[in-house]
Amino acid sequence: MNLTTLYGPDGSILSEEVRDPALRGGWREGLPWDGGFAQPDAIYGVDRDRERLRTRRAYFQNPLFGSAVDIAVAFLVGDEFSYAPPNIDQPARTVLDEFWAENDLGALVGERLVTEYLLDGETCAVFPTGDEDPGTDTPARIALLDVGRGVRLRASITGGVEAVTTAGANAGTDLTWERGQFVWAAHAALWNDPRGWPVAMRAVEPAAAYLTLLNHRLNTHELQARILGVQKVFVDRERPDSRAQFAAKAGAYRNLPRRGGVLTLPMVEGKDGKVISDSLDFMTPGKGGADAATDARALMRLTGLALGGLPEHWLGEGGNATRTTAGEMSLPAVRIALRRQAVIRGILDRLVRAELTRRLGAGRKYTLTTWDYRDDGRTRVKRTRKVPVSQLEIPWVLPAIRQDTLADLLSRAEAAAKNGWASPQTLAASLGFDPGEEGTRMAAVGLAFGQANGQAAQPTAPTGGDANATDPSPV
What we know:
By secondary structure, this protein is α+β, with helices and mostly antiparallel strands. The chain is built from eleven helices and 17 strands. Helix content is 38%, strand content 15%.
């Protein structure tokens, strides 16, 4: 049975129950991106371009939203972004080094790529083509397209995004990049839709509501500052000069003493024996301040949650957070941040693979070096194998994101060492040390890795009979 889906002119799915005579835009059959480069203006009840514009505007106009995005970027990238020497052959490593230097990838990722990905939900890095291609002997300088300025895709279900087109510098001209000449990434590209949605779009509403609530509080305080007090005066309406009497009393307290003073209010006994007096009441701050603080904290929590689980104390609100609850609140942020870091690594790996293919050829095999550990990790054996470019992964160095404190890590390592649950190499790596590097350095000064200082290293005989070279140095 052949099943098809019908879409209305706004991109929403039509059902047989729809009976709207005003639906003059007609219907269409197929998938959201059918029709070549054409994209529906709206789908799922929201407009993609409008949502992108909303997040961009909020980044510059809403201090809570903009700061939350910057905190998320710093959490993901920090100031440690770089790459470790990869275990690939020297020509490929040279291409990587030159590509990093030519594009200043450290600054590009920290200043633009991650921020734009959070705000737009899409990123498109393109390589120079035609006359602008520097050739295979020179590193390419990539460009990040503004996906909000008419970027169009050609995509299919099985092939993914096959081409990217955007308007050229001259009117009526287009620039197109085919597969291999660009790297495309999209957030929440679900149900075979190649376009993405802003990562931070769910945080716009609570951040705007937070700012609106604060503005209401400021307006209340401003009104209270303009009306310091209310004076109630007694005026005898039977007197012909009652208006003049009222004006005189009103002018008595028009100019209050700058540093305080004594206010005198008359008290008069009426004909019925009741005492009649003027009164002067000073305004007090409006009630509901505690409720406003609670609401503001809730909106701040929603903003942080929508940006990846950022806890409220990261956004400047201590609230009811304690040391225990702060640690628990950071758990969602850790999980989501690790996932976002994986996306960043994936984008960068695809960029490097495209550059390697451009400079060294599409069919080239790369020598990948790995190590096997023997003798309880004290000896490592070198292995090499040939792999295609699609299997290369660069060891990008991003900030380590974990929930455990240093005390927790030390306590776990001590328990594992005492009970023999893990090797010294694993324990050292869990604390941030490189077992291979540290083993080599300690052996050079006569020390053994995993033993207290002062104990000499025991010589390890090299293992033979292997097709590959063996490194007998302790690890």
